Protein backbone atom coordinates (compact mmCIF):
# COMPACT_ATOMS: atom_id res chain seq x y z
CA UNK A 1 0.00 0.00 0.00
CA UNK A 2 1.39 3.41 -0.98
CA UNK A 3 1.61 6.33 1.42
CA UNK A 4 -1.28 7.96 -0.44
CA UNK A 5 -3.43 4.85 -0.17
CA UNK A 6 -2.70 4.68 3.55
CA UNK A 7 -3.52 8.36 3.94
CA UNK A 8 -6.86 7.78 2.22
CA UNK A 9 -7.48 4.84 4.51
CA UNK A 10 -6.66 7.08 7.47
CA UNK A 11 -9.44 9.46 6.48
CA UNK A 12 -11.87 6.55 6.40
CA UNK A 13 -10.61 5.29 9.78
CA UNK A 14 -10.95 8.76 11.32
CA UNK A 15 -14.56 8.85 10.16
CA UNK A 16 -15.21 5.40 11.61
CA UNK A 17 -13.59 6.40 14.90
CA UNK A 18 -15.74 9.51 15.21
CA UNK A 19 -18.92 7.70 14.22
CA UNK A 20 -18.18 4.97 16.76
CA UNK A 21 -17.65 7.50 19.56
CA UNK A 22 -20.84 9.33 18.55
CA UNK A 23 -22.81 6.05 18.55
CA UNK A 24 -21.32 4.99 21.88
CA UNK A 25 -21.94 8.36 23.48
CA UNK A 26 -18.52 7.99 25.07
CA UNK A 27 -14.92 7.62 24.08
CA UNK A 28 -11.54 9.23 23.71
CA UNK A 29 -11.63 11.40 20.63
CA UNK A 30 -8.50 13.52 20.76
CA UNK A 31 -6.03 10.76 21.57
CA UNK A 32 -7.66 8.37 19.12
CA UNK A 33 -7.18 10.83 16.28
CA UNK A 34 -3.61 11.59 17.37
CA UNK A 35 -2.48 7.94 17.30
CA UNK A 36 -4.52 6.80 14.32
CA UNK A 37 -1.77 7.20 11.75
CA UNK A 38 0.59 5.20 13.98
CA UNK A 39 -1.97 2.37 14.22
CA UNK A 40 -2.57 2.54 10.48
CA UNK A 41 1.12 2.09 9.73
CA UNK A 42 1.52 -0.65 12.35
CA UNK A 43 -1.37 -2.80 11.16
CA UNK A 44 -0.97 -2.21 7.44
CA UNK A 45 2.79 -2.10 7.07
CA UNK A 46 4.71 -3.29 10.09
CA UNK A 47 3.06 -5.92 12.28
CA UNK A 48 3.31 -9.52 11.19
CA UNK A 49 -0.23 -10.26 12.29
CA UNK A 50 -3.56 -10.79 10.59
CA UNK A 51 -6.92 -12.35 11.48
CA UNK A 52 -5.61 -15.61 10.03
CA UNK A 53 -2.32 -15.60 11.98
CA UNK A 54 -3.57 -14.16 15.26
CA UNK A 55 -3.27 -17.48 17.06
CA UNK A 56 0.24 -18.12 15.76
CA UNK A 57 2.88 -18.12 18.53
CA UNK A 58 5.27 -16.31 16.18
CA UNK A 59 2.99 -13.36 15.40
CA UNK A 60 4.17 -9.88 16.31
CA UNK A 61 2.56 -8.58 19.50
CA UNK A 62 0.97 -5.16 19.91
CA UNK A 63 -0.26 -4.04 23.33
CA UNK A 64 -1.99 -0.67 23.53
CA UNK A 65 -0.84 0.75 26.82
CA UNK A 66 -2.87 3.93 26.26
CA UNK A 67 -5.94 1.73 26.24
CA UNK A 68 -8.35 4.65 26.27
CA UNK A 69 -7.72 5.30 22.59
CA UNK A 70 -9.56 2.07 21.87
CA UNK A 71 -12.04 3.39 19.32
CA UNK A 72 -9.24 4.15 16.86
CA UNK A 73 -7.81 0.68 17.48
CA UNK A 74 -11.23 -0.93 16.97
CA UNK A 75 -11.60 0.98 13.68
CA UNK A 76 -8.20 -0.24 12.47
CA UNK A 77 -8.84 -3.84 13.52
CA UNK A 78 -12.27 -3.87 11.84
CA UNK A 79 -10.71 -2.50 8.67
CA UNK A 80 -8.09 -5.26 8.81
CA UNK A 81 -10.86 -7.84 9.00
CA UNK A 82 -10.46 -8.94 12.62
CA UNK A 83 -14.21 -8.40 13.12
CA UNK A 84 -17.13 -6.90 11.14
CA UNK A 85 -17.23 -3.12 10.87
CA UNK A 86 -20.86 -3.23 12.04
CA UNK A 87 -19.57 -4.22 15.50
CA UNK A 88 -18.26 -0.66 15.90
CA UNK A 89 -21.84 0.43 16.47
CA UNK A 90 -22.01 -1.66 19.66
CA UNK A 91 -19.11 0.00 21.52
CA UNK A 92 -20.01 0.62 25.17
CA UNK A 93 -23.46 -0.92 24.72
CA UNK A 94 -25.10 -3.23 27.25
CA UNK A 95 -23.62 -6.74 26.99
CA UNK A 96 -21.28 -5.76 24.14
CA UNK A 97 -17.72 -7.02 24.52
CA UNK A 98 -16.57 -3.78 22.89
CA UNK A 99 -16.07 -1.98 26.19
CA UNK A 100 -14.32 1.36 26.42
CA UNK A 101 -10.85 -0.15 26.77
CA UNK A 102 -9.22 -3.12 25.00
CA UNK A 103 -10.03 -6.65 26.14
CA UNK A 104 -9.05 -10.06 24.87
CA UNK A 105 -12.71 -10.80 24.15
CA UNK A 106 -12.14 -8.85 20.92
CA UNK A 107 -10.27 -10.60 18.10
CA UNK A 108 -6.90 -8.94 17.62
CA UNK A 109 -6.46 -7.68 21.17
CA UNK A 110 -3.50 -9.20 23.03
CA UNK A 111 -4.04 -7.95 26.58
CA UNK A 112 -6.63 -6.08 28.62
CA UNK A 113 -5.40 -2.55 29.19
CA UNK A 114 -6.85 0.75 30.29
CA UNK A 115 -5.13 1.51 33.58
CA UNK A 116 -2.03 3.40 32.51
CA UNK A 117 1.55 2.26 32.95
CA UNK A 118 0.82 -1.42 32.33
CA UNK A 119 1.67 -2.02 28.67
CA UNK A 120 5.44 -1.70 28.82
CA UNK A 121 6.03 -4.22 31.66
CA UNK A 122 3.74 -6.72 29.92
CA UNK A 123 5.64 -6.23 26.66
CA UNK A 124 8.93 -6.87 28.43
CA UNK A 125 7.57 -10.25 29.50
CA UNK A 126 6.54 -10.94 25.91
CA UNK A 127 9.89 -9.82 24.50
CA UNK A 128 11.76 -11.94 27.06
CA UNK A 129 9.63 -14.95 26.10
CA UNK A 130 10.62 -14.41 22.46
CA UNK A 131 14.30 -14.22 23.39
CA UNK A 132 14.08 -17.35 25.54
CA UNK A 133 12.50 -19.29 22.68
CA UNK A 134 14.75 -17.85 19.98
CA UNK A 135 11.56 -16.61 18.29
CA UNK A 136 11.85 -13.76 15.84
CA UNK A 137 8.63 -11.93 16.61
CA UNK A 138 8.68 -8.29 17.64
CA UNK A 139 6.72 -6.62 20.43
CA UNK A 140 5.21 -3.13 20.24
CA UNK A 141 3.41 -0.92 22.71
CA UNK A 142 1.89 2.53 22.42
CA UNK A 143 2.00 4.91 25.36
CA UNK A 144 0.58 8.35 25.87
CA UNK A 145 2.93 11.13 26.90
CA UNK A 146 0.78 11.96 29.93
CA UNK A 147 0.94 8.27 30.81
CA UNK A 148 4.67 8.59 31.37
CA UNK A 149 4.00 10.04 34.83
CA UNK A 150 3.15 6.49 35.95
CA UNK A 151 6.24 5.19 37.72
CA UNK A 152 5.84 1.64 36.46
CA UNK A 153 6.94 2.83 33.01
CA UNK A 154 10.32 3.74 34.40
CA UNK A 155 10.72 0.44 36.23
CA UNK A 156 10.09 -1.17 32.87
CA UNK A 157 12.38 1.23 31.01
CA UNK A 158 15.27 0.05 33.20
CA UNK A 159 14.46 -3.62 32.69
CA UNK A 160 14.08 -3.43 28.89
CA UNK A 161 17.53 -1.89 28.55
CA UNK A 162 19.02 -4.27 31.14
CA UNK A 163 17.83 -7.24 29.10
CA UNK A 164 18.87 -5.63 25.79
CA UNK A 165 15.43 -6.17 24.32
CA UNK A 166 15.99 -5.05 20.75
CA UNK A 167 12.82 -6.91 19.79
CA UNK A 168 10.78 -4.35 21.76
CA UNK A 169 9.56 -1.00 20.47
CA UNK A 170 7.74 1.53 22.64
CA UNK A 171 5.96 4.26 20.72
CA UNK A 172 5.04 7.44 22.53
CA UNK A 173 2.04 9.33 21.17
CA UNK A 174 3.53 12.70 21.95
CA UNK A 175 0.56 15.01 21.51
CA UNK A 176 1.54 17.11 24.57
CA UNK A 177 -2.00 17.26 25.93
CA UNK A 178 -3.74 15.27 28.63
CA UNK A 179 -7.12 15.49 30.27
CA UNK A 180 -6.29 18.49 32.44
CA UNK A 181 -4.33 20.43 29.86
CA UNK A 182 -0.77 20.66 28.59
CA UNK A 183 1.49 17.89 29.83
CA UNK A 184 4.18 20.49 30.55
CA UNK A 185 1.79 22.14 33.03
CA UNK A 186 0.41 18.95 34.58
CA UNK A 187 3.73 17.15 35.04
CA UNK A 188 6.59 18.17 32.84
CA UNK A 189 8.42 15.26 31.27
CA UNK A 190 10.74 16.86 28.71
CA UNK A 191 13.25 16.27 27.29
CA UNK A 192 11.74 12.88 26.51
CA UNK A 193 14.39 11.80 24.03
CA UNK A 194 17.21 12.43 26.50
CA UNK A 195 15.37 10.59 29.26
CA UNK A 196 14.90 7.45 27.19
CA UNK A 197 18.46 7.57 25.91
CA UNK A 198 19.68 7.92 29.49
CA UNK A 199 17.72 4.80 30.37
CA UNK A 200 19.62 2.90 27.66
CA UNK A 201 17.16 2.98 24.78
CA UNK A 202 17.74 3.77 21.11
CA UNK A 203 15.50 6.75 20.39
CA UNK A 204 13.94 8.00 17.19
CA UNK A 205 11.89 11.18 17.04
CA UNK A 206 9.45 11.36 14.13
CA UNK A 207 6.42 13.20 12.88
CA UNK A 208 3.64 10.87 13.99
CA UNK A 209 1.51 11.73 10.98
CA UNK A 210 4.26 11.21 8.38
CA UNK A 211 3.79 7.81 6.82
CA UNK A 212 7.29 7.51 5.38
CA UNK A 213 8.91 8.54 8.68
CA UNK A 214 6.72 6.24 10.79
CA UNK A 215 7.37 3.33 8.45
CA UNK A 216 11.11 3.88 8.57
CA UNK A 217 11.13 4.13 12.37
CA UNK A 218 8.89 1.14 13.03
CA UNK A 219 10.01 -1.33 10.36
CA UNK A 220 13.14 -2.45 12.17
CA UNK A 221 14.80 -2.09 15.57
CA UNK A 222 16.85 1.07 15.79
CA UNK A 223 19.96 -0.54 17.27
CA UNK A 224 21.16 -4.04 18.00
CA UNK A 225 21.08 -4.79 21.73
CA UNK A 226 18.83 -1.89 22.68
CA UNK A 227 15.07 -1.46 22.92
CA UNK A 228 13.67 1.17 20.56
CA UNK A 229 11.68 4.18 21.68
CA UNK A 230 9.87 6.02 18.89
CA UNK A 231 8.73 9.45 20.02
CA UNK A 232 5.96 10.25 17.57
CA UNK A 233 5.15 13.95 17.62
CA UNK A 234 1.43 14.15 17.00
CA UNK A 235 -1.50 16.54 17.11
CA UNK A 236 -4.30 15.69 19.48
CA UNK A 237 -7.58 15.64 17.55
CA UNK A 238 -5.68 15.43 14.26
CA UNK A 239 -7.82 15.84 11.12
CA UNK A 240 -10.71 17.84 12.56
CA UNK A 241 -10.02 21.56 12.83
CA UNK A 242 -12.05 22.31 15.94
CA UNK A 243 -10.70 19.28 17.81
CA UNK A 244 -7.02 19.83 17.10
CA UNK A 245 -4.92 20.80 20.12
CA UNK A 246 -7.96 21.32 22.36
CA UNK A 247 -7.69 19.44 25.67
CA UNK A 248 -11.46 19.18 26.15
CA UNK A 249 -11.60 16.76 23.22
CA UNK A 250 -9.56 14.27 25.27
CA UNK A 251 -12.82 12.48 25.92
CA UNK A 252 -15.23 14.90 24.31
CA UNK A 253 -18.10 13.28 22.41
CA UNK A 254 -19.28 15.12 19.30
CA UNK A 255 -22.86 16.30 19.02
CA UNK A 256 -24.74 15.43 15.84
CA UNK A 257 -23.84 18.82 14.37
CA UNK A 258 -20.20 18.47 15.38
CA UNK A 259 -20.04 14.99 13.88
CA UNK A 260 -21.51 16.31 10.63
CA UNK A 261 -18.96 19.11 10.52
CA UNK A 262 -16.10 16.72 11.30
CA UNK A 263 -17.20 14.27 8.61
CA UNK A 264 -17.53 17.14 6.11
CA UNK A 265 -13.96 18.21 6.87
CA UNK A 266 -12.76 14.66 6.41
CA UNK A 267 -14.71 14.36 3.14
CA UNK A 268 -12.92 17.47 1.95
CA UNK A 269 -9.58 16.04 2.98
CA UNK A 270 -10.40 12.84 1.12
CA UNK A 271 -11.34 14.73 -2.04
CA UNK A 272 -8.13 16.72 -1.83
CA UNK A 273 -6.06 13.55 -1.45
CA UNK A 274 -7.80 11.98 -4.43
CA UNK A 275 -7.13 15.07 -6.53
CA UNK A 276 -3.49 15.11 -5.56
CA UNK B 1 25.30 -16.97 67.21
CA UNK B 2 22.28 -14.73 67.48
CA UNK B 3 19.58 -15.40 70.03
CA UNK B 4 17.12 -18.07 68.89
CA UNK B 5 13.72 -16.89 67.65
CA UNK B 6 10.90 -17.33 70.15
CA UNK B 7 9.32 -20.77 69.81
CA UNK B 8 5.90 -21.02 68.21
CA UNK B 9 5.04 -23.87 70.58
CA UNK B 10 4.96 -24.09 74.35
CA UNK B 11 6.37 -27.26 75.96
CA UNK B 12 2.78 -28.47 76.37
CA UNK B 13 2.06 -27.85 72.68
CA UNK B 14 5.22 -29.68 71.70
CA UNK B 15 4.17 -32.60 73.90
CA UNK B 16 0.75 -32.61 72.23
CA UNK B 17 2.37 -32.60 68.78
CA UNK B 18 4.39 -35.63 69.81
CA UNK B 19 1.30 -37.32 71.19
CA UNK B 20 -0.49 -36.73 67.88
CA UNK B 21 2.48 -38.16 66.00
CA UNK B 22 3.28 -34.90 64.16
CA UNK B 23 6.77 -34.70 62.68
CA UNK B 24 8.53 -31.41 62.12
CA UNK B 25 9.22 -30.77 58.43
CA UNK B 26 10.94 -27.88 56.70
CA UNK B 27 9.62 -24.43 55.91
CA UNK B 28 6.92 -24.29 53.27
CA UNK B 29 9.20 -21.78 51.54
CA UNK B 30 11.90 -24.47 51.20
CA UNK B 31 9.34 -27.00 49.99
CA UNK B 32 8.13 -24.50 47.37
CA UNK B 33 11.64 -23.74 46.12
CA UNK B 34 12.59 -27.41 45.87
CA UNK B 35 9.34 -28.33 44.12
CA UNK B 36 9.60 -25.48 41.63
CA UNK B 37 13.20 -26.36 40.78
CA UNK B 38 12.27 -30.00 40.30
CA UNK B 39 9.38 -29.04 37.99
CA UNK B 40 11.45 -26.48 36.08
CA UNK B 41 14.21 -29.01 35.40
CA UNK B 42 11.63 -31.22 33.70
CA UNK B 43 9.81 -28.34 31.98
CA UNK B 44 11.99 -25.64 30.39
CA UNK B 45 8.86 -23.55 29.90
CA UNK B 46 8.71 -22.77 33.62
CA UNK B 47 10.18 -19.36 34.46
CA UNK B 48 10.65 -17.80 37.89
CA UNK B 49 10.50 -14.00 38.13
CA UNK B 50 12.03 -12.33 41.18
CA UNK B 51 12.29 -8.79 42.50
CA UNK B 52 15.66 -8.97 44.24
CA UNK B 53 13.91 -11.78 46.10
CA UNK B 54 15.69 -14.92 44.95
CA UNK B 55 17.44 -15.14 48.32
CA UNK B 56 14.26 -14.54 50.32
CA UNK B 57 12.46 -16.96 48.02
CA UNK B 58 15.15 -19.64 48.48
CA UNK B 59 15.58 -19.61 44.71
CA UNK B 60 19.34 -19.05 44.59
CA UNK B 61 19.91 -22.78 43.81
CA UNK B 62 17.21 -22.55 41.12
CA UNK B 63 18.99 -19.56 39.62
CA UNK B 64 22.32 -21.41 39.60
CA UNK B 65 20.88 -24.60 38.15
CA UNK B 66 18.57 -22.94 35.62
CA UNK B 67 19.92 -19.47 34.84
CA UNK B 68 17.90 -19.22 31.62
CA UNK B 69 14.67 -19.85 33.48
CA UNK B 70 14.88 -17.03 36.01
CA UNK B 71 14.22 -13.36 35.36
CA UNK B 72 15.42 -10.75 37.86
CA UNK B 73 13.50 -7.47 37.72
CA UNK B 74 15.14 -5.66 40.61
CA UNK B 75 13.16 -4.04 43.39
CA UNK B 76 10.17 -3.32 41.17
CA UNK B 77 7.11 -5.35 42.10
CA UNK B 78 4.74 -3.69 39.64
CA UNK B 79 7.15 -4.59 36.87
CA UNK B 80 7.46 -8.10 38.31
CA UNK B 81 3.76 -8.79 37.91
CA UNK B 82 3.53 -7.15 34.48
CA UNK B 83 6.49 -9.16 33.20
CA UNK B 84 5.11 -12.34 34.74
CA UNK B 85 1.82 -11.69 32.91
CA UNK B 86 3.58 -10.96 29.60
CA UNK B 87 5.62 -14.16 29.85
CA UNK B 88 2.44 -16.13 30.55
CA UNK B 89 0.66 -14.49 27.61
CA UNK B 90 3.43 -15.78 25.35
CA UNK B 91 3.22 -19.38 26.50
CA UNK B 92 5.57 -19.42 29.48
CA UNK B 93 4.53 -20.94 32.80
CA UNK B 94 5.66 -17.99 34.84
CA UNK B 95 5.92 -17.80 38.62
CA UNK B 96 6.23 -14.27 40.02
CA UNK B 97 7.87 -14.63 43.43
CA UNK B 98 7.98 -11.76 45.91
CA UNK B 99 7.19 -11.07 49.57
CA UNK B 100 3.42 -11.20 49.99
CA UNK B 101 3.32 -7.77 51.60
CA UNK B 102 4.67 -6.02 48.49
CA UNK B 103 3.29 -8.39 45.86
CA UNK B 104 -0.34 -7.98 46.85
CA UNK B 105 -0.32 -4.30 47.81
CA UNK B 106 2.07 -2.41 45.57
CA UNK B 107 1.24 -4.51 42.49
CA UNK B 108 -2.43 -5.08 43.18
CA UNK B 109 -3.52 -3.25 40.03
CA UNK B 110 -1.18 -5.40 37.93
CA UNK B 111 -2.62 -8.54 39.55
CA UNK B 112 -6.15 -7.31 38.88
CA UNK B 113 -5.65 -6.21 35.27
CA UNK B 114 -2.58 -7.87 33.77
CA UNK B 115 -3.12 -11.29 35.32
CA UNK B 116 -6.76 -11.80 36.35
CA UNK B 117 -8.66 -9.57 33.90
CA UNK B 118 -6.38 -10.52 31.01
CA UNK B 119 -6.81 -14.16 32.12
CA UNK B 120 -3.26 -15.39 31.67
CA UNK B 121 -2.03 -18.56 33.41
CA UNK B 122 0.48 -16.74 35.63
CA UNK B 123 1.27 -17.90 39.15
CA UNK B 124 1.95 -15.41 41.92
CA UNK B 125 3.82 -16.61 44.99
CA UNK B 126 3.56 -14.51 48.13
CA UNK B 127 6.56 -15.51 50.22
CA UNK B 128 6.99 -14.71 53.91
CA UNK B 129 3.32 -13.85 54.10
CA UNK B 130 1.16 -13.01 57.08
CA UNK B 131 3.43 -11.99 59.93
CA UNK B 132 6.41 -14.13 58.90
CA UNK B 133 8.49 -10.97 59.00
CA UNK B 134 6.90 -10.29 62.40
CA UNK B 135 9.32 -7.94 64.07
CA UNK B 136 9.97 -5.95 60.90
CA UNK B 137 6.64 -4.24 61.37
CA UNK B 138 3.50 -3.53 59.42
CA UNK B 139 5.30 -2.57 56.20
CA UNK B 140 6.37 -6.20 55.96
CA UNK B 141 3.12 -7.87 57.02
CA UNK B 142 0.56 -9.15 54.56
CA UNK B 143 -2.65 -9.33 56.53
CA UNK B 144 -4.75 -7.89 53.72
CA UNK B 145 -3.88 -10.19 50.82
CA UNK B 146 -6.69 -12.70 51.15
CA UNK B 147 -9.27 -9.93 51.46
CA UNK B 148 -8.11 -7.99 48.42
CA UNK B 149 -7.63 -11.03 46.22
CA UNK B 150 -10.98 -12.50 47.26
CA UNK B 151 -12.48 -9.32 45.82
CA UNK B 152 -10.83 -9.84 42.43
CA UNK B 153 -12.45 -12.10 39.87
CA UNK B 154 -10.58 -15.01 38.28
CA UNK B 155 -7.87 -16.09 40.70
CA UNK B 156 -7.47 -19.25 42.75
CA UNK B 157 -6.13 -18.52 46.23
CA UNK B 158 -4.15 -21.26 47.99
CA UNK B 159 -2.80 -21.11 51.55
CA UNK B 160 -1.00 -24.37 52.32
CA UNK B 161 -0.67 -25.55 55.91
CA UNK B 162 2.35 -27.80 55.63
CA UNK B 163 4.95 -29.18 53.23
CA UNK B 164 2.50 -31.66 51.69
CA UNK B 165 -0.07 -28.99 50.90
CA UNK B 166 2.66 -26.66 49.63
CA UNK B 167 3.97 -29.22 47.18
CA UNK B 168 0.46 -30.05 46.01
CA UNK B 169 -0.36 -26.34 45.60
CA UNK B 170 2.72 -25.81 43.44
CA UNK B 171 1.99 -28.93 41.36
CA UNK B 172 -1.53 -27.59 40.78
CA UNK B 173 -0.28 -24.09 39.95
CA UNK B 174 2.24 -25.44 37.44
CA UNK B 175 -0.56 -27.10 35.48
CA UNK B 176 -3.19 -24.39 35.92
CA UNK B 177 -4.55 -22.60 32.87
CA UNK B 178 -5.89 -19.73 35.00
CA UNK B 179 -4.31 -17.31 37.50
CA UNK B 180 -3.21 -18.76 40.84
CA UNK B 181 -1.95 -17.10 44.03
CA UNK B 182 -0.13 -19.14 46.68
CA UNK B 183 1.02 -17.70 50.00
CA UNK B 184 3.03 -19.17 52.82
CA UNK B 185 5.60 -18.35 55.49
CA UNK B 186 9.17 -19.19 56.23
CA UNK B 187 9.03 -21.07 59.52
CA UNK B 188 9.48 -24.85 59.68
CA UNK B 189 6.13 -26.60 59.75
CA UNK B 190 4.84 -29.82 61.27
CA UNK B 191 3.53 -32.34 58.77
CA UNK B 192 -0.23 -32.67 59.34
CA UNK B 193 -1.36 -35.19 56.76
CA UNK B 194 -1.50 -38.93 56.48
CA UNK B 195 0.47 -40.33 53.54
CA UNK B 196 -2.67 -41.30 51.62
CA UNK B 197 -4.32 -37.87 51.83
CA UNK B 198 -5.75 -36.58 48.58
CA UNK B 199 -5.31 -32.89 47.85
CA UNK B 200 -7.97 -31.29 45.72
CA UNK B 201 -8.14 -27.55 45.11
CA UNK B 202 -11.44 -26.22 46.44
CA UNK B 203 -11.90 -29.12 48.86
CA UNK B 204 -10.97 -28.77 52.51
CA UNK B 205 -9.04 -31.60 54.14
CA UNK B 206 -10.61 -32.91 57.33
CA UNK B 207 -7.71 -33.62 59.65
CA UNK B 208 -9.82 -34.72 62.57
CA UNK B 209 -13.49 -35.50 63.09
CA UNK B 210 -15.70 -34.36 65.93
CA UNK B 211 -19.02 -32.63 66.61
CA UNK B 212 -18.38 -30.26 69.46
CA UNK B 213 -16.36 -27.46 67.93
CA UNK B 214 -15.35 -27.20 64.27
CA UNK B 215 -12.04 -25.44 63.72
CA UNK B 216 -11.86 -24.17 60.15
CA UNK B 217 -8.29 -22.99 59.78
CA UNK B 218 -5.99 -22.04 56.95
CA UNK B 219 -2.28 -21.98 56.30
CA UNK B 220 0.17 -21.97 59.15
CA UNK B 221 -2.52 -21.67 61.79
CA UNK B 222 -3.92 -25.13 61.07
CA UNK B 223 -1.39 -26.87 63.29
CA UNK B 224 -2.50 -24.81 66.28
CA UNK B 225 -6.13 -25.81 65.68
CA UNK B 226 -5.09 -29.45 65.47
CA UNK B 227 -3.15 -29.21 68.73
CA UNK B 228 -6.09 -27.45 70.39
CA UNK B 229 -8.41 -30.25 69.26
CA UNK B 230 -5.98 -32.70 70.84
CA UNK B 231 -5.96 -30.75 74.08
CA UNK B 232 -9.75 -30.41 74.17
CA UNK B 233 -10.12 -34.20 74.26
CA UNK B 234 -8.82 -33.92 77.79
CA UNK B 235 -11.88 -31.73 78.51
CA UNK B 236 -14.19 -34.32 77.01
CA UNK B 237 -14.66 -32.51 73.70
CA UNK B 238 -14.25 -34.01 70.26
CA UNK B 239 -13.45 -31.29 67.77
CA UNK B 240 -13.36 -31.25 63.99
CA UNK B 241 -10.40 -29.70 62.24
CA UNK B 242 -10.55 -28.62 58.62
CA UNK B 243 -7.52 -27.41 56.71
CA UNK B 244 -9.05 -24.87 54.36
CA UNK B 245 -6.09 -24.64 51.99
CA UNK B 246 -8.19 -23.08 49.24
CA UNK B 247 -9.66 -19.70 50.07
CA UNK B 248 -11.10 -19.30 46.58
CA UNK B 249 -13.03 -21.23 45.37
CA UNK B 250 -14.21 -21.85 48.93
CA UNK B 251 -15.41 -25.29 50.01
CA UNK B 252 -18.85 -24.12 51.09
CA UNK B 253 -20.07 -27.69 51.40
CA UNK B 254 -17.53 -28.54 54.10
CA UNK B 255 -18.27 -25.28 55.93
CA UNK B 256 -22.02 -25.88 55.96
CA UNK B 257 -21.53 -29.51 56.99
CA UNK B 258 -19.37 -28.36 59.89
CA UNK B 259 -21.90 -25.68 60.83
CA UNK B 260 -24.79 -28.10 60.77
CA UNK B 261 -23.06 -30.96 62.59
CA UNK B 262 -21.04 -29.12 65.23
CA UNK B 263 -22.12 -27.08 68.25
CA UNK B 264 -19.85 -24.16 67.41
CA UNK B 265 -17.51 -22.97 64.66
CA UNK B 266 -14.15 -21.23 65.08
CA UNK B 267 -12.22 -19.97 62.08
CA UNK B 268 -8.48 -19.34 62.32
CA UNK B 269 -6.28 -17.40 59.93
CA UNK B 270 -3.01 -15.46 59.79
CA UNK B 271 -4.84 -12.47 58.37
CA UNK B 272 -6.85 -9.51 59.52
CA UNK B 273 -10.36 -10.49 60.58
CA UNK B 274 -11.73 -8.13 57.91
CA UNK B 275 -12.43 -9.91 54.66
CA UNK B 276 -10.55 -13.15 55.20
CA UNK B 277 -11.50 -16.78 55.74
CA UNK B 278 -13.65 -16.06 58.80
CA UNK B 279 -15.94 -13.57 57.09
CA UNK B 280 -16.18 -15.87 54.07
CA UNK B 281 -17.32 -18.72 56.36
CA UNK B 282 -19.76 -16.44 58.17
CA UNK B 283 -21.31 -15.39 54.87
CA UNK B 284 -21.65 -19.00 53.74
CA UNK B 285 -23.29 -20.05 57.01
CA UNK B 286 -25.62 -17.05 57.23
CA UNK B 287 -26.82 -17.35 53.64
CA UNK B 288 -27.62 -21.01 54.22
CA UNK B 289 -29.50 -20.16 57.42
CA UNK B 290 -27.03 -22.03 59.64
CA UNK B 291 -26.66 -20.22 62.95
CA UNK B 292 -24.23 -21.53 65.53
CA UNK B 293 -21.93 -19.90 68.07
CA UNK B 294 -19.19 -18.53 65.85
CA UNK B 295 -15.81 -16.86 66.37
CA UNK B 296 -13.24 -15.49 63.92
CA UNK B 297 -9.69 -15.80 65.26
CA UNK B 298 -7.26 -13.61 63.34
CA UNK B 299 -5.73 -10.19 63.70
CA UNK B 300 -8.03 -7.40 64.82
CA UNK B 301 -8.34 -4.07 63.01
CA UNK B 302 -5.51 -2.41 64.91
CA UNK B 303 -1.80 -1.79 64.46
CA UNK B 304 -0.34 -5.25 64.92
CA UNK B 305 1.49 -5.81 68.16
CA UNK B 306 5.30 -5.74 67.73
CA UNK B 307 7.12 -9.03 68.05
CA UNK B 308 8.24 -12.15 66.28
CA UNK B 309 5.70 -14.29 64.43
CA UNK B 310 5.40 -16.60 67.47
CA UNK B 311 4.85 -13.64 69.81
CA UNK B 312 2.18 -12.18 67.55
CA UNK B 313 0.38 -15.50 67.15
CA UNK B 314 0.31 -16.02 70.90
CA UNK B 315 -0.80 -12.42 71.53
CA UNK B 316 -3.86 -12.88 69.33
CA UNK B 317 -4.73 -16.33 70.57
CA UNK B 318 -3.42 -18.36 67.67
CA UNK B 319 -1.90 -21.14 69.77
CA UNK B 320 -3.02 -24.44 71.19
CA UNK B 321 -3.78 -22.80 74.50
CA UNK B 322 -5.48 -19.75 73.01
CA UNK B 323 -7.71 -21.72 70.67
CA UNK B 324 -8.66 -24.21 73.41
CA UNK B 325 -9.69 -21.31 75.60
CA UNK B 326 -11.73 -19.72 72.79
CA UNK B 327 -13.52 -23.04 72.23
CA UNK B 328 -14.37 -23.47 75.88
CA UNK B 329 -15.71 -19.93 76.14
CA UNK B 330 -17.78 -20.34 73.01
CA UNK B 331 -19.42 -23.50 74.35
CA UNK B 332 -20.30 -21.92 77.71
Brief summary:
The complex is a heterodimer of chains A (276) and B (332). Chain A is of the alpha/beta class and 276 residues long.
What does this structure look like?
The complex is a heterodimer of chains A (276) and B (332). Chain A is of the alpha/beta class. Chain A has one domain: Thiamin diphosphate (ThDP)-binding fold, Pyr/PP domains (Rossmann fold, 3-Layer(aba) Sandwich). Chain A is built from 9 helices and 7 strands. In chain A, the strands form 2 sheets. Chain A has a 5-stranded parallel beta sheet, sandwiched between helices. In chain A, strand 2, helix 5 and strand 3 form a beta-alpha-beta unit. In chain A, helix 1 packs across helix 2, helix 1 packs antiparallel against helix 9 and helix 2 packs parallel to helix 3. The mean pLDDT of chain A is 97. Chain B has 332 residues and is α/β, with parallel strands linked by helices. Chain B folds into 2 domains: 151 residues, Rossmann fold (3-Layer(aba) Sandwich), CATH 3.40.50.920; 165 residues, Rossmann fold (3-Layer(aba) Sandwich). Chain B has 13 helices and 14 strands. In chain B, helix 3 links the parallel strand 2 and strand 3. Chain B is globular. At the A-B interface, helix 4 and helix 5 of A face helix 4 and helix 6 of B.
Radius of gyration of chain B (Å):
19 Å
Distance from first to last alpha carbon of chain A: 16 Å
Oligomer: heterodimer
Report the β-strand fraction of chain B as a percent range.
Answer: 15-25%
* Proportion of residues in β-strands of chain A: 5-15%
Share of residues in helices of chain B: 25-40%
CATH architecture tag of the largest domain in chain B: 3-Layer(aba) Sandwich
In the CATH hierarchy, what is the architecture of chain A at level 2?
3-Layer(aba) Sandwich
Structure annotation, total helices of chain A: 9
**How are the strands ordered across the major sheet of chain A?**
1-2-3-7-6
Which CATH C-level class of chain A is it? Alpha Beta
Radius of gyration of chain A from CA coordinates: 18 Å
Q: Which fold does the CATH topology of the largest domain in chain B refer to?
A: Rossmann fold
- The string of secondary-structure elements of chain B, in order, is HEHEHEHEHHEHEHEEEEHEEHEHEHH
Shape of chain A: globular
CATH homologous superfamily assignment of the largest domain in chain B? Thiamin diphosphate (ThDP)-binding fold, Pyr/PP domains
Uncertain segments of chain A of ≥5 residues (pLDDT<50)?
Answer: none
CATH class of the largest domain in chain B: Alpha Beta
